[in-house]
Automatic annotation (TrEMBL):
Its cofactor is [4Fe-4S] cluster. GO terms for cellular component: cytosol. The lineage of its organism: Bacteria, Pseudomonadati, Pseudomonadota, Alphaproteobacteria, Rhodospirillales. Binds 1 [4Fe-4S] cluster. GO terms for molecular function: 4 iron, 4 sulfur cluster binding; metal ion binding; phosphogluconate dehydratase activity. Gene3D superfamilies: IlvD/EDD C-terminal domain-like (3.50.30.80). The gene is edd. It comes from Nitrospirillum viridazoti CBAmc. Pathway: Carbohydrate metabolism; Entner-Doudoroff pathway. Belongs to the IlvD/Edd family. Catalyzes the dehydration of 6-phospho-D-gluconate to 2-dehydro-3-deoxy-6-phospho-D-gluconate. This is Phosphogluconate dehydratase. Coiled coil: none annotated. It holds the Pfam family ILV_EDD_C.
Length: 613
C-alpha cells in the first residue's frame, strides 16, 4: 500500500528539520560503540569489580570476552501494581541467558513512582521530573561499559519514556523492552466513574469509594484503562521495541513468562558478537517516531505523550512538534474505544484483536511506515512492521507467533481504518491568543467540544475543589487553573478536577478546563485545554487572564482564545503567585535545578539541556 500523503509529508518535514541533529547523534553513536565488546578496554581492576559477584563460569566467559553480556535495567517495586511482577523477571532472564549461551547481569534499578498513589498530593509535583531522573539512572546503570545489549523492564507513566531516553543515550547497545502485562479486568470502568462522581457530590461515602477503587485496581498488573501506562505499551510495540503481541498478556501466566524468555533469547541474537548487530539508536529513526505518533492518535492515547515523544525523539537527535501531531491527527482515524474513550478496557481491546489488528489495518491503509527496523527483523515473523501483524501464543511451553485475526471480534471496541469511530485522531492542537495547547477529544462528545463562557481563575486545583464544594460553580464557566506548568511546580496531573467538572457537565452546564498543567491519558468527557504554553510563570497569557473574561475553546476548529480587547489585555500586569509552598516537602526541595532549567511543554518539558542527544 502506498504511503498516505500526509504521513509522507510530515515524515519528510521531520527528516529535514532533524538533519543536522540526527547526523550528530549517529556520529556520537558510532564513536561510543568503540571496540567490541566494550569491556575489552577495561583495566583488570575495573573488570574484576564488574564480575566479582558473578558465578565462576560467568567470570571466565566475561574475562575472556567469549560471551555477550546483557544488562537488565528494571523499574521493579511493590508500589506499582504493574511493576510488582518484575520481581521474578531477573531470575527468568538470567536462566534464559545461560540457555542462550550468554550472560545477564542486573545492571541497575530505576525509580518508579505511581501517579495513582500521588494524584492530588504534593508528590505528584515530582512525577514529570521523575522521567528525567529515570533516564539519568538508566545511564548510570549502563555506565560501566560491561554490556553488549540491554533489556528494559518498565511499563508505567514516566518510566518507559525515561528508560527509552536513557537507552537512546546508549544508542550503540541493542535493546528490547520487556512488559509485564495488564491485571485482569475488575470493576467496570463506567461503574468506577459513577461512584467517583457520587462521591464528589457527597452521595457516596469514603468506604463506598474505597471499595469501588479496590475492585478496579485489584491485583498485580497494569491498570486496565487506556492511560499513559498502556499507551506506553502500545508505543513500544508499534515502534518495534517489544516482541510482537507482548504488550497486553496478563502477568504471572505461562505465556507472559515465555515471552520474557523469548525477549532474552532475541537480545542475545542482536549483539555485535552474534553477527546481527542492531543498535537501538539506529532502529529508532524519524519513521519510527512518526509511527509512534500515528499509534497514539489511532488509539486515542495519552496526552502525556505530546511531552514524552518530543523528549524521546530529541534523545535520538530528532525534532518533532505539536504541529506534526496536529497534521497527522487530520489524517489518522480513531480505531479504538478503550476507557476513558469507551467503556471497555485493554483486556477487551486485546481480545477483540488488539495491536495486531490495529497495526495491520493502519499498514493496509498506508498510515504506517512498514519498512522500519524492529527488534525481530529477520525472524520467522518477517521484517519491519509486517512482523507485528502476528500475535503471540503458547506452543509446547514456548512463545510462538501466528497471524493475527483479520477481523475485529468486537467493533464497539476496535475497528478497521476503512470504518473508523472517527475520521481523525483523538489528540488535537489548539492555538490562539491564549497560547498553544493540547486537547484530547476522543472521549468528549461532539456537543461538548465547543465552550464559550466566562473564566473563573484558580491558582491550584484545591482552590477549585473548595469553590465546587461551596456550590459556587453551578453555572457555565471555563475553569482556568494556572501556575501548574513545569517551571512553576513540576506540571502535576490535575485529575481531582475530573469528577466535579463531570458532575457540572451532567447537570447541563457548559464547562471546560484550561491549564498549563496536565490531565494525562485519563482525560475524560470534559473538554480540557492542557499543557498550555508558554506557561503562566514564563510570560504566558494565563498570567493576565482574570475571572469574568470570556474564553472560547473550540475543539473542532482547534482554537483557544481570550475574548478581551488586545490592547487592554496587553496592558494588564501579570499575576505573581507565591510558589514557595511548591519548593519544599516530599523532596521537592531537591528538584529546584530541574524547575529552573526545564524546557516548555512543546519542547518536551525536559531538563537535559539543548543538545542532550
Amino acid at each position: 500500500m502506498a504511503l498516505h500523503d500526509t504521513l509522507r509529508r510530515v515524515t519528510d518535514r521531520v527528516i529535514q528539520r532533524s538533519a543536522g541533529s540526527r547526523a550528530r547523534y549517529l556520529q556520537r553513536l558510532d564513536a561510543q560503540k568503540g571496540q567490541s565488546p566494550r569491556r575489552g578496554a577495561l583495566g583488570c581492576g575495573n573488570l574484576a569489580h564488574g564480575f566479582a559477584g558473578c558465578a565462576a563460569d560467568d567470570k571466565v566467559a566475561l574475562a575472556g570476552n567469549r560471551k555477550s553480556n546483557i544488562a537488565i535495567v528494571s523499574a521493579y517495586n511493590d508500589m506499582l501494581s504493574a511493576h510488582q511482577p518484575f520481581e521474578r523477571f531477573p531470575a527468568i532472564i538470567k536462566k534464559a541467558a545461560h540457555e542462550a549461551g550468554v550472560v545477564a547481569q542486573f545492571a541497575g534499578g530505576v525509580p518508579a513512582m505511581c501517579d495513582g498513589v500521588t494524584q492530588g498530593r504534593d508528590g505528584m509535583e515530582l512525577s514529570l521530573f521523575s522521567r528525567d531522573v529515570i533516564a539519568q539512572a538508566t545511564a548510570i546503570a549502563l555506565s560501566h561499559d560491561m554490556f553488549d545489549a540491554a533489556l528494559y523492564l518498565g511499563i508505567c507513566d514516566k518510566i518507559v519514556p525515561g528508560l527509552l531516553i536513557g537507552a537512546l543515550s546508549f544508542g550503540h547497545l541493542p535493546a528490547i523492552f520487556v512488559p509485564g502485562g495488564p491485571m485482569p479486568s475488575g470493576l467496570s470502568n463506567p461503574e468506577k466513574a459513577r461512584i467517583r462522581q457520587l462521591y464528589a457530590e457527597g452521595k457516596a461515602t469514603r468506604d463506598d469509594l474505597l471499595e469501588a477503587e479496590s475492585k478496579s485496581y485489584h491485583s498485580p498488573g497494569t491498570c486496565t484503562f487506556y492511560g499513559t501506562a498502556n499507551s506506553n505499551q502500545m508505543l513500544m510495540e508499534i515502534m518495534g521495541l517489544h516482541l510482537p503481541g507482548a504488550s497486553f498478556i496478563n502477568p504471572n501466566t505461562e505465556l507472559r513468562d515465555a515471552l520474557t524468555v523469548a525477549a532474552t533469547q532475541r537480545a542475545a541474537q542482536l549483539t555485535e558478537q552474534a553477527g546481527n548487530y542492531a543498535p537501538i539508536g539506529r532502529l529508532v529513526d524519524e519513521r519510527t517516531i512518526v509511527n509512534a505518533i500515528v499509534g497514539l492518535l489511532a488509539t486515542g492515547g495519552s496526552t502525556n505523550h505530546t511531552l514524552h515523544l518530543v523528549a524521546i525523539a530529541r534523545a535520538a537527535g530528532i525534532h518533532i512538534d505539536w504541529q506534526d501531531f496536529s497534521d497527522l491527527s487530520g489524517a489518522v482515524p480513531l480505531l479504538a474505544r478503550v476507557y476513558p474513550n469507551g467503556v471497555s478496557d485493554v483486556n477487551h481491546f486485546h481480545a477483540a484483536g488488539g495491536l495486531q489488528f490495529l497495526i495491520a489495518s493502519l499498514l493496509d491503509a498506508g498510515l504506517l511506515h512498514g519498512d522500519v527496523a524492529t527488534v525481530v527483523d529477520g525472524t520467522e515473523q518477517g521484517s519491519g512492521l509486517d512482523a507485528y501483524r502476528h500475535e503471540a501464543w503458547l506452543k509446547d511451553g514456548k512463545a510462538a507467533w501466528r497471524a493475527g485475526t483479520p477481523t475485529s471480534a468486537d467493533t464497539s471496541i476496535l475497528r478497521p481504518a476503512t470504518d473508523p469511530f472517527d475520521p481523525s485522531g483523538g489528540i488535537r492542537l489548539l492555538t490562539g491568543n491564549a497560547g498553544r495547547a493540547i486537547i484530547k477529544v476522543s472521549a468528549v462528545k461532539p456537543q461538548h467540544r465547543i465552550v464559550e463562557a466566562p473564566a473563573i481563575v484558580f491558582e491550584s486545583q484545591d482552590e477549585m475543589l473548595a469553590a465546587f464544594k461551596r456550590g459556587e460553580l453551578e453555572r457555565d464557566f471555563i475553569a482556568v487553573v494556572r501556575f501548574q506548568g513545569p517551571a512553576a511546580n513540576g506540571m502535576p496531573e490535575l485529575h481531582k478536577l475530573t469528577p466535579p467538572l463531570g458532575v457540572l457537565q451532567d447537570k447541563g452546564f457548559k464547562v471546560a478546563l484550561v491549564t498549563d498543567g496536565r490531565m494525562s491519558g485519563a482525560s475524560g468527557k470534559v473538554p480540557a485545554a492542557i499543557h498550555l504554553t508558554p506557561e503562566a510563570l514564563k510570560g504566558g497569557s494565563l498570567a493576565r487572564i482574570q475571572t469574568g473574561d470570556v474564553v472560547r475553546l473550540d475543539g473542532e476548529a482547534g482554537t483557544l482564545d481570550i475574548l478581551v480587547d488586545a490592547t487592554e489585555f496587553a496592558a494588564r500586569p501579570a499575576a505573581t503567585p507565591d510558589l514557595t509552598a511548591n519548593t519544599w516537602g516530599t523532596g521537592r526541595n531537591l528538584f529546584g535545578a530541574m524547575r529552573a532549567h526545564v524546557t516548555g511543554a512543546e519542547d518536551g518539558a525536559h531538563s537535559f539541556g539543548e543538545d542532550f542527544a
